[in-house]
Amino acid sequence: MCNANESKKTTPRVATGDRAILPEGAKAIPVYIMGKKYEVPETLTIMKAMEFAGFKFLRGAGCRGGICGACPTVYRMAGDYKLHFGLACQTVVEANMYLAQIPFYPANRASYDINAIGGLAEAIHALYPEVFRCVACNQCTKACPMDVDVLGYISAIKQGDIARAAKISFDCIQCGLCASRCLGEIPQYHVAQLARRVYGKYILPQAEHLQKRVSEIESGKYQTMLGDLAGMSKEELEKRYVEREREPDFFEGGKWMPKETQYL
Ligand code: FES
């Protein structure tokens, strides 16, 4: 059983489009931003509601699309002791939200040379020994606006399973809310980023086709083509785009080849 605010938390209203144009008849609702009450349209995301209230984002906003992690927000609903977490650009306001922005969290970030540290878990343990201060309280996971199993990847790192940690943490957007709740003062998101880097550098097989393409780029293979494109007018570019050869829909994978193979 849960109270009304808990059920709201499990089904957050997430913005799906540009809410800058208010639907006709949108009601104004009270929200509290940094402790002060404002009336804002009920259809706005937290970010747009704050702008509606007169705030200007110099920091704490980036992509506005739920990817960059610049807009973590902590809020509480009136009458409920619980803290809730979300992204300001994705979460729609609700009446009587008490909101605070956390655009930056000063978590410890280790310095390292990824080419020198090697692919063993001990390298991560040496750089972030605080992972062993984890008491498995799971507050980090509860704070994650991306529903990443933060405790799961910290446990995997402690057990030396870098591949598992990299996979579990793949959706992390580095907002830092996990670290803001950690009793052990672990910078989980930086630890996970290192795990993904180690996984990519030392554990995943090398992508040979990518190496080939990078050396072709470095040898200047595409310079003439890029120069030609850069010299075209907008109309010529549009014509080239419309007339380009395209793989037919539903063609069996790997069987189709364009007539022009010069740049493959
Ligand atoms: S502004 Fe990028 S995640 Fe919200």
Description:
With 264 residues, the chain is of the alpha+beta class. Among the domains are: 12-101, Roll (Ubiquitin-like (UB roll)); 121-203, Fumarate Reductase Iron-sulfur Protein, Chain B, domain 2, CATH 1.10.1060.10. It contains 11 helices and 5 strands. The chain has helices spanning 4-10, 46-52, 121-127, 139-143, 150-158, 162-168, 177-180, 188-203, 208-218, 223-230, 234-242; strands spanning 28-33, 36-41, 72-77, 84-87, 97-101. It has a 5-stranded mixed beta sheet, covered by helices on one side. The relative contact order is 0.10. Mean pLDDT is 90; it is low at 1-10. It binds FE2/S2 (inorganic) cluster. Residues 61-64, 66-71, 87, 89 line the site of FE2/S2 (inorganic) cluster. FE2/S2 (inorganic) cluster (FES) binds at residues 61-64, 66-71, 87, 89.
